[in-house]
Amino acid sequence: MSAPSGQFDAIVVGGGHNGLACAAFLARAGVRVLLLEANATLGGAATTRAFAPGFRVSAGAHLVHQLPAALARELELERHGLQWAAQGLSSAALAPTGSVVFDQGGGITGADLGADLQAYPEFMQRMRRLAAALNPTLEGVPPKFEDHGWRDRLGLAGLGWRLRRLGRRDLRELLRIAGMNAYDLLADNFGSPLLQGALGLDAVLGTNLGPRSPGTVMTLLCRLAAQHGAGARGIALPRGGVGALSEALAAAARAAGAELRTAQVVERVLVVDDRAAGVRLASGETIQARCVVSNLDPKASFLGLVGAEHLDAGFVRRAQRLRARGLAAKLHLALDAPPTFTGLPDAARGARLVIAPSLDHLERAYNHSKYRQYSAAPALEITLPTLHDATLAPAGKHVLSAIVQYAPYEIEGGWEQQRGRFTELAIDTLEACAPGLRSLVRASELLTPADMEREFRLGGGHWHHVDLALDEFFAVRPLPGATRHATPLPGFYLCGAGCHPGGGVMGIAGRNAARQVLAEEGLR
Amino acid sequence: MSEPSAAPGHFREPLRPTPFHERTRSLSQVDSFVPWAGYTTVDVFTTVEHEYFAIRNATTLYDLTPMVKYRIAGPDAARYLNRLVTRDVAKLKVNRVSYCVWCNDAGDIIDDGTVFRMAADEYRLCTAEWQLDWLLASALGFDVEIEEVTSEVAALAVQGPTSCAVLKRLGLAGVERLKPFEFGRFSTGELELMVSRTGFTGDLGYEVWVEPARALALWDALMEAGRKRGIRAVGSRALNIARIEAGFLMPKIDFHSAEASIRLGTGRSPLELGLGWLVDFGKGHFTGRRALLAQQRRGLERQLVGLDVDGNKPALNALLYSDRDGQHEIGSISSAIWSPTCKRNIALAMVDAPHFAVGSTVWAEIYLSRELVWERRMRRARVVEKPFFAPERRRLTPPADC
Q1: ipTM associated with this complex
Q2: Do residues A293 and A10 make contact, with C-beta atoms less than 8 angstroms apart?
C-alpha cells in the first residue's frame, strides 16, 4: 500500500449486512477499514430487536435463504457466533380450506393436487438446473459491455458454456420463459391455485411487481439462483434471529481488524480534487480515507452523501428517477401460544407459511398498490421463529413475523391514519387461516415502508433499495454510470442492495464491492 | 420553477409575431420569413448583399426577440450555473456577460449561449433554442428558480461600425463607455433600456433589451437616430455571413445538440469545436468535466477549424480528403461562404487528426451547378486561424467616432 493518508484506507458508510460483509472482506485483505453506522445497532434491516416486553423478532428480513454458503465459509461466520435454529425449511401454502406443503427439492403434499404432484418436482428440477447455470454469473460482478477486459470475456464465456451445457431442451426453455411473467409460467405448469399463488409470491416478494408484471420470471429465477448458491442450508433461521447473522458479520469484520462505530451519522462525503477523500459526520467531525464505500441506497448515496454538485446533471436525473418505493410491510405479533392453521398439521407450522391463495389474489392485491391503496386481501409470508428458537420470547410464548404485501410507501391518507386498519386487516387475514389466532395476540407491531425508511434508513422503505426490474438489473444496476460498484466520483463506491444482485440477505453486493474496491484502488 | 410562458390557445398560432413584426413586415421587400424558436423572423429584407454590407459599414437592426431567455435566480444560482456551463462564471461580475457552452455527461455540447449577471443572485441565460428540460434536470439538488422569460423581453441587435454613434444620438449617455461583454441600463425619453455590448457579427455592436410594449417605439427611435448613418434592418442570411467571418458557431449547423442527437458519435465536445478556452477544469465539477478530461488525455480525434479554400465557390457541405484523389476522407465542412470583406473563400470544417493543425492542406470536394449541369471540383484548402475577420473597432472603448 502506498502513501496512506490518515488512519484509514476505506470508510464504509452504513452497517447493514452488506456494509458489514464489505468491511469484513476489505479488512481481511489488509485494508484499514472504518465502518460508520448511523443507528445504535449494526445490521440495518437484518436485525433482531424487541417489539414487546420479552418478545424479540427479526425486524426486517426474517429468513436467510440467499446467503452464499461460500461466503459464510470464507468469513467463518459460524466461528464468529452464527448458529442455525433451523435449516432446510419447507413452505406451506395456506388457505381457509386447506394447505399445500412443498419444498425446494420438489417434495409436495396436500389435497387435490392431481397432476401437480408430478409437475411440481419436474418443474423444480428444471428450475434448479437453470438456477445452477445462472448462479455463478448472477453472484459475480456484472460484466462491462464496452471495452471489456479478459475477465469480463471469461465471465461471459463461462455463462455461455454453462448455458450450452444445459442442453437443447433446457436452454430452449430458459430462452422461452426468461422474459415471461410469473403468472403465465405458473398457470402453464400447475393446476392448483394454492401452489400457483405461493410460487407467485416468490417471484414478487419485496418487489414493485405483480405476478403479471413483465420480468417476474427473471426475479423468480434470480431468487432460485441465489438459493442455489446458499446450498444445502436452504431456507434457514439463525439462532437469535436474522440480527445474529449481522452480529457474526460484525464479529468477522472486527476480528479481521475493521473498526465499527455505531451512532455515527455521516452527512457528506468529502470531495478533494474530484475524489472521495473521507466523510463529514453530523457532529461536524471529519474523517479522511483513501476511499468511501456506501451501503446506503443509491439515491441517498448520490443525492445525499455526494451531492449533485459533484455529479453530472444527466446522472443526477437518472438517479433521481430510480424507482424505489417499497411495497412490503412487516407485522410482528406476540402470541400466548402458537396458532393452529386449518388443514396444516401442527408439526408443519414451523415451515415458511404463505398466504397467497391464487395468482389472481396476488395480482388484485398488487392492483391496489398502484393507486396508493392496499387490498382488503393482502398476501403474507409468515414465520413462527419461536418454534425453532425459544430465545426470542418468554418461556411458552411465541412470536409471529409476517411480510405483508402490498403496502405501498405512499398511501392515501398517510400511514399514521391507515396503520391501525391495515394491522387489523393483516390479523384478519391470518385469523381466516388460523381461527382463534386473534385471541392469542398479546401485542402487535406494524412496520410500514415509511417506518422502515425511518428505522433502517431505506429510501422509500424499499428492501431492494431499487426495484428489481430489467432496466435496473445486472449490468445496468442501479443505473448506468454506477454499475460494478464504482461510481462517477473516483474513490466512491456502492456496496448495498442497490447494486447487483439486489436486496435479500445475501451479502453478495458487499463482498463484490470489496473485491472491486481492492482492484480499483490498487489495495492488494 | 414555471412552465414556458405560453398563452392559452397558443397552438392556434404556430408561429408568433415578434413585438417588432409590424415594422419588419412592412420593410420586407421579398417576403422571406423563417421560423425561429416559435416566432416568425426575417431571413432577407431586400438583398443579402445590401444587408451584409450595412453590418460591416453602417448600422443594422436585427430582431433577436426569439432568442430564448431564462431567468435563473436564487441563493444557489451562481453554484448552479457553474455546474451547468464549462466556463467559470463564479467570477462574472454584475453587469457583465459571459459566452458559455454547456455539455451533457459525455462532454458533448448541448448548446451555447450568453449568461448575463443581472444581480448578485440573478442571471439571464440567452440561447438559440429551448433548454428548459436540461436546465431543470441540472437544477436537481440546487436552490434555484428557473423561468422562461422570452416573451417578456424584446431585443434588437444594433450592430455595425456606426452603431455606438447611433445609440448616442438616440440619447443613451455614456453608452460609449460600455466595454465588450458589459451591459448597463439607460433611459431616453420614455424608453427604459438595457444595453449590452454583445453580438453575433464580430464587429462593433450592441444588443438592446426592452419591454415588448415599447418595442415599436424603440425601433422607430433607432431608425430615426440612424437615418443619416445608413441604418438598415437585416435578416438572418446577412448575419450568417458576418458570423462565419467572425468564426462563430451556429447550433444545428456547426454542431448538433447532444440532447437532440439519436445517432452515436454525432455529439461534439467543446474541445473538438475549438472552444477549449471556454473549459475551465480548475473551477470544480461541472457536467461533462470527467468526460472532457478523459478526452483531453486521449487527445482529440477531430477538431473544428477554419479553412481557406481555393477558388471562389463556397464549399457548402463539402467532404474533405487528405489527398487530391479523394481516397482518404478526413472530415466535412459545416459552414461556407465567400467572404465579401476578406475576399477569401472561407469555411468552418470538422477535420480529423492530424489534419486539423493550422497550416495543413486538405482537399474539398465541391459540387458546382453550371446552369443545372453539375460538376465536381477538388479544391485545395488550408487550415487557418480563426476568426477570419476581427477588426480592432470591435473592442475599442470608446468606439472611434464617439
Answers
A1: 0.93
A2: yes
Q: Report CB contact under 8 Å: B285, A317.
A: no
Preferred mutation among B72, B103, B259, B287 to probe A, highest tally of A CBs within 10 A: B287
**From CA A291, how far away is CA A298, in angstroms rounded?**
17
- In A412-520, at which residue ranges do the beta strands (DSSP E only) sit? 441-447, 492-494
For A64-120, the pLDDT digits (tens) are: 999 999 999 999 999 999 999 999 999 999 998 889 999 988 999 998 899 999 999
pLDDT band at A151 (very low <50, low <70, confident <90, very high): confident
Q: What is the pLDDT of residues A24-79, one digit of tens each?
A: 999 999 999 999 999 999 999 999 999 999 999 999 999 999 999 999 999 999 99
Task: Please give the Cα distance from A138 to A140 (Å, whole number).
Answer: 5
Task: Say whether B285 and A274 touch across the interface (CB within 8 A).
Answer: yes
Handedness of CA B267, B129, B385, B96 (dihedral sign): negative
Give the residue range(s) of CATH 3.30.1360.120 domains in chain B.
1-298
Q: Which CATH class is domain B301-388?
A: mainly beta
A chain contacts of residue B134, beta-carbon cutoff 8 Å: 313
Q: Is B86 exposed, middle or buried (0-12, 13-18, 19+ CB in 10 A)?
A: buried
Nearest chain A residue to B76 by CA: give it: A309
Closest CA to B265 of B352, B196, B169, B325: B352
Q: Where in chain B is the domain with CATH 2.40.30.110?
A: 301-388
Q: Report the C-alpha gap between A301 and A22 in whole angstroms.
A: 16
Write out the three cell numbers for B314: 463556397
Helices A17-28 and A508-520 cross at an angle (nearest 10°) of: 40
The distance from CA A6 to its chain's CA centroid, rounded to whole angstroms, is 35
A480 touches chain B (CB under 8 A): no
pLDDT digits (tens, 9 = 90+) for A206-220: 889 999 999 999 999
pLDDT in tens, B76-119: 999 999 999 999 999 999 999 999 999 999 999 999 999 999 99
For domain B1-298, give its CATH number from 2.60.40.3080, 3.40.50.2000, 3.30.1360.120, 3.30.930.10.
3.30.1360.120
DSSP assignments along A253-281, one per residue: HHHTT-EEE-S--EEEEEEETTEEEEEEE
A4 pLDDT exceeds 60? Answer: no
- Residue ranges per domain, chain A? 8-46+239-323+458-520
Bridge partners for A56 per DSSP = A50
* Alpha-carbon span A468 to B302, nearest angstrom: 41
| Pairing label, strands B32-36, B39-44 | antiparallel
* A279 touches A287 (CB < 8 A): yes
- Inter-chain touch A312–B105, beta carbons under 8 Å: yes
> What is the model's pTM?
0.94
Question: What was the pLDDT predicted at B123?
Answer: 98
Phi, psi angle pair for B57, to nearest 5°: -130, -15
Give the range among A14-18, A144-148, A386-390, B13-17 with minimum mean pLDDT: A144-148
All three cell numbers of B372: 443545372
Q: Which of A269, A299, A303, A309 to mutate to test the interface with B (most CBs of B within 10 A)?
A: A309
Place of cell 431564462: B70
Cβ–Cβ gap A310/B285 under 8 Å: yes
Helices (H), B202-360: 215-225, 236-245, 289-298
**Given this structure, which CATH class describes domain A8-46+239-323+458-520?**
alpha beta
Residue B62, Ramachandran bin (φ over 0: left; ψ between -120 and 50: alpha; else beta): beta
Between A271, A274, A308, which is nearest B140 by CB?
Answer: A308
CB atoms closer than 10 angstroms to residue A149: 10
Provide the pLDDT for residue B6: 55
Residues of chain A found within 8 Å of residue B285, distances taken between Cβ atoms: 271, 274, 309-311
